[in-house]
Structure formats: structure tokens, C-alpha cells
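QA checklist item 7 of 12: single-chain prediction sanity check.
[x] sequence parsed
[x] length recorded as 347
[x] structure emitted
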Amino acid sequence: MKSSMLAAVLHGVNDLRLEEVPVPTPRGGEVVVKIKSCGVCATDFKAIRGIRRNVIFPFVAGHEPSGIVAAVGAGVKHFKEGDEVICQPSGFCGFCKHCRTGNSHYCETAFTTGGDGPKDVWPGAFAEYMKTMESCLFKKPVGISFDAAAITEPLSGAWKGMIQYSEMKIGDDVVVIGVGSIGLLCMMVAKAAGAGRLIAVDASDYALEHAGKLGATHVVNPAREDAKKRIYEIIPEGPDLICEAAGLIQAVKLMVDLRRRGTRWNVFGITTHETFELDGGLTHFLEGRMDASFGTTPLAMSKAIRLMETGLVDIEKIISHRFPLAQIDKAMDVMAGKERNKVIMNP
């Protein structure tokens, strides 16, 4: 293994520099992974562009990696050099009350590799190598490419939100608001789980075109038509489940307006601190259920791997762009545009 590596180091807003930095050395329980692929998340883009402000510089982003184990620290028992792996970005202790009850993404001493959420942030995977804990690794099945494997974490979030939390059932009429890459994953999970009518809502014709190819039974563009009126023409009794995957407060407000009695709705995409109103009495008598979902867990990661391994979700279909690490500035320019789905970095 080399002593130095190329990494994209963020020194400030829009100050992203390709630098030679030391390759990390694993300590007890840690592994170093040679990164083969890393998905670009909107939170990575927001950190680089200054939209997300909870960043401590210098910072190496990238929290959706797959790769090959390059070195192991003392005490590592389940992985060895040369193993092809998928990395969960969120590390956890396994012993606090949250970890012991299955909510490891609430861990009191959590860390993240190149991501968002915990205060303890380790350098991420926009680099040739990345260090993490053995407990964050999963064996990559032979039939899954490194590029597809890199999308395990967002796919796991879609499974967790749609299936585990919102308890989607076979035949449910489902509305997904916002069908960028994460919305497409939510939609593909819903399709695999047996959605009845599956409605994709987005103001981008590019996004709606891809949603139609990936399983949406209907598409609705709120920029050109009354979204609520059109959705209720398609499903007169209203949706069983609504997922907001747009990240916009307008999408949350539309979701609230679409509810009927018994609707389950998931605040999935928005991460900014914006407000919306609820009519207390109406919400009471509608007797719906609001869920929200962030992050991932070992259970969700395992389910996502199974979805890919069995072919129930063909993750390759949402990859629109691939870039070498040396072209990360071009990748960010693509992220700023509307005609893209999942962008992959290949260090």
C-alpha cells in the first residue's frame, strides 16, 4: 500500500483542492479500504457549495463507498486484505441503549465517514483510501459491481423509510414526490414491494421520464398541472402512502395536502429547518400516520444488498454519470444541474 494518496479536501465553501495526503493507518478494530467507487449525495454537494453549514474544515466528503480491503488493524477478525466490501458510513458503538434496541443510527457515540449527522466526522471516500471500523463493512456479493455497491447506503435508506418505517403493503397506492436519485430508489423499492398505482411527482421532465422507465404507472408535473387534482383523478380514494423525497418545503406542503383518512406519509427528503402547518383537528380525524427516516442501520444495509443481489432492484439503471477523482469539479457542476440521476466517483 502506498504512503500517500490523492484526496479531494474541502478547505472552505467552494474551496475544493486535490491534494496528496498520507494514507490512513488502521488501529485496533479498524480497516483501510481502497476506494473503487463512491456515490455523490446531495449532502456532499451542499457541503461543498456552502448550502450545508455544519462542516468543520478541512473536510473530505464522500459517504457512499465500495472498495477493497487494503489493510487491517489489530483484532480485526471478519475481514482480510483483498476482500471486496461495501461501507456503511455511520459507525456505532453497539453497546449504548440505542444500539442495543436496533437503532444504531441514534448511537450516543456515533461517527460518520465523510457524511452528515454525528459530530465525530472521519475523512470520507472522495479519496483513494478511507479508514473505518470493521463493524461498518459488508461483504460485496460477486454479482454486484463496485458502482452499484456504492449505492447500497441510499438504497438502504429507501428500504428503511418505505418498508420498515412506513410499512408499505402489497397493492398500496403510492405517491413519491421528487424523483431524483433518492426518489427513484424509493420508487423502485415500492415497485419491488408490489405497489398498486405508483405516481411520480416532479417538476423536471427529465426526472419524470426516468421514473416512467423505472416503474412509475403515472407521472405528474406540478409545474404544468394541479398536482392534487391530477393525483385524485388517478386514485379517487387518495393515496395509501406518500413519500416526500424532494428535499423542498413545497413538497412537504403538497404531501400534507394530499392526505386522506388513513394515509401514511413520510418526511424523507427534507433536511433543512423549514416549517409547515398542520390543522390539528383535521390531522386528528384523518387518523393518518406521519413517519420520517434518516440514516441507515446494519439491518437496512443487509436488506439493500439482498434487493440488489436478487435482482429485485437494478441499481445500475439510476447511474447517469461517472467521473474519476481528478474530475471532481466537473462532477459538482453536474450535481448543480437538473439532468442527472446518480453521480459516481471512481478514485
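[x] summary fact logged: The domain at 4-150+314-346 is CATH 3.90.180.10 (Quinone Oxidoreductase; Chain A, domain 1).
[ ] second reviewer sign-off
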